[in-house]
Specification:
The complex is a heterodimer. By secondary structure, chain A is an all-alpha fold. Chain A has a single domain, classed as MetI-like (MetI-like fold), CATH 1.10.3720.10. Chain A contains 12 helices and no strands. Chain A is elongated, with a radius of gyration of 21 Å. The N terminus of chain A is likely disordered. Chain B is mostly helical. Chain B has a single domain, classed as MetI-like fold, CATH 1.10.3720. Helices cover 76% and strands 0% of the residues of chain B. Chain B has 12 helices and no strands. In chain B, α3 packs across α7, α7 crosses α9 and α9 runs antiparallel to α12. Chain B is globular. The chains are: A mainly alpha, B mainly alpha. Chains A and B meet through α1, α2, α3, α4 and α5 of A and α1, α3, α4, α5 and α7 of B.
């Protein structure tokens, strides 16, 4: 077991050292970074905007929805929860094609990309929220607050939400990371004017020089690695059940 | 009194899933069973119903090959990543060594790198003038593994690269729930190392293995970015869908391929879940 573990470890380190290879290309001279900013800065901004919007909408959709699913189960709520998790196991390209097929009228609007991102990010928020709510006896808190005369809204805002703070932070980081790296769905939904950053990366891989694509990749990693490390730090291994799609 | 409020709270999620997943997939199915490859956005119901698209997938050697390749690749990736991760997951749960959290962070880092990135990294490492072939050349004088990024090996490495975090995390969480007293009990009854592993640990871990398998399988099946970058001579289903849709404007066939993929993913996901649910030991 130890041997196997260390073997995986070294092979893994070998693979991940590619990051440093690509990074060193940019470190020798930073001009490629400027070039990437000039050429793909708008894509980057679009992706950032998309990721932030996804976070906001996921909070708005996932937190109340997760509360209902976890604390007020009704008939068929388990099945519904399964349905919410379904996008994660469905090929992204199928979803993209289905969206284009169903909403061809609004194809070319940037918020169709957002719709695709939401499908793949809301499950994370939902799962983090429901996991947290199920991990302790939230009902008792609610009963206590109720006995003190707190109405539903007061309870939700003053009792439930503070308890969900950690989950909401971790969930937001997850949503941000997923949205920032999402390629499967967004590639087909992208419009000529609004392309996500991973799609721009794809463009550099296929039709630009190696230095440019390395610099662009490094920029991509520079955004996502801190987020992922933060998730690791905050969420630890509770994230295990919050698996996701590539 | 509470009902309306609860309904309002869950309504956005419901609207999202039905308008963006259920309804579009239903329409996609409709367009896949139409006899002509109708252009996108054309009124459905124009042509008669037929299964010709599905027949084409199954009879055309190229498309069927792509399907078989996709299934085979996903299967081997899922199996290999479980095999690779079982040991490290065990170590992360049971072992205690310095830098453990760092190692876990390192392992789980590529979780949300998109496929294109992974494809690019593999090309850097194993491409025609990749890092490893050049290293090999400087060492032995021959560029071993040169260009292997574009073959089955490269795909395998790339897919495993981003499946390792998923497999590791799911396995770790289920190993954590494993009651290690069972193993101690078996040991006290005189069971050897392998006996314990095969008769005590493995049956208890079976559901976890199945769910990890279905997760990694489904993710590999749908992964698109890696394949787009490096499957040059190797037909894979997602790339075929992409080409049918954007290159040949054959929406009917592309939809049928999507439906096939969705059906496979769905079956694997729920079939394995049910299989593992039945075998789940209540205490585990």
């Amino acid at each position: 077991m130890v041997v196997l573990g260390s073997f995986v470890n070294t092979s893994y380190l070998g693979i991940s050292s590619e990051q440093w290879v690509s990074g060193s290309e940019g470190l020798i001279s930073f001009k490629w970074f400027g070039y990437v900013f000039d050429l793909y800065g708008s894509h980057m901004l679009f992706s950032l905007r998309l990721a932030l919007l996804s976070v906001i909408l996921c909070l708005a959709i996932g937190v109340p929805g997760g509360y209902v699913l976890a604390c007020r189960p009704f008939r068929g709520s388990r099945a519904l929860e399964e349905l919410f998790m379904l996008p994660l196991s469905i090929p992204g390209i199928a979803v993209a094609l289905a969206l284009i097929n169903a909403y061809s009228v609004i194809r070319g609007k940037w918020w169709l990309v957002l719709c695709g991102h939401l499908l793949y990010t809301v499950p994370f928020m939902l799962r983090v929220v429901t996991n947290t709510l199920r991990s302790f006896d939230i009902q008792r808190y609610e009963v206590a607050a109720r006995s003190l005369g707190a109405g539903f809204f007061k309870r939700f805002v003053l009792v439930i939400l503070p308890n969900l703070r950690h989950a909401m932070i971790v969930g937001s980081l997850l949503v941000f990371a997923v949205s920032w790296g999402e390629f499967n769905v967004s590639f087909l939904l992208n419009t000529p004017l609004h392309q996500t950053y991973p799609a721009a990366l794809f463009a550099t891989y296929t039709s630009n020089s190696f230095q440019v694509s390395s610099a662009a990749t490094t920029l991509f990693l520079m955004v996502i690695i801190p987020v992922l490390l933060l998730i690791q730090r905050l969420g630890g291994s509770e994230l295990a059940r919050v698996e996701q799609g590539a | 009194m509470k009902r309306p409020i609860l309904l309002i709270m869950i309504l956005p999620a419901l609207a999202l899933i039905f308008s963006l997943l259920v309804w579009p997939l239903a329409l996609l199915f409709v367009s896949s069973v139409q006899s002509t490859g109708n252009a996108i956005g054309a009124a459905p119901g124009r042509a008669g119903l037929s299964l010709s698209n599905y027949v084409e997938i199954l009879t055309d050697p190229w498309y069927f090959g792509a399907l078989v390749n996709s299934l085979w690749l996903s299967f081997s990736v899922a199996a290999l990543s479980i095999l690779l991760c079982l040991g490290p997951a065990w170590l992360l749960v049971r072992g205690d060594f310095p830098g453990k959290s760092w190692i876990r962070a390192l392992f789980t880092l590529p979780m949300s790198f998109s496929g294109v990135i992974v494809g690019f990294l593999v090309v850097i490492m194993l491409g025609r003038i990749g890092f490893i072939p050049q290293f090999m050349e400087s060492l032995t004088g021959r560029a071993f593994l040169s260009g292997s990024a574009y073959q089955f090996t490269g795909l395998l490495v790339a897919y495993i690269y981003f499946e390792v975090p998923r497999a590791l995390l799911t396995l770790e969480s289920s190993l954590k729930k494993f009651d290690f007293q069972l193993e101690t009990a078996a040991r006290s009854l005189g069971a050897g190392r392998w006996q314990r592993f095969f008769w005590v640990v493995l049956p208890n871990l079976w559901p976890a293995l199945l769910s990890t398998f279905s997760l990694t399988f489904c993710v590999s099946l749908g992964s698109f970015g890696v394949a787009l970058i490096i499957s040059k001579r190797f037909a894979l289903m997602p790339v075929e869908i992409f080409q049918q849709f954007t290159g040949f404007l054959n929406t009917g066939l592309a939809s049928a391929m999507c439906i096939v993929l969705v059906a496979i993913a769905f079956t694997v996901n729920y079939g394995l879940r049910m299989l593992s649910g039945r075998r789940e030991v209540p205490s585990a």
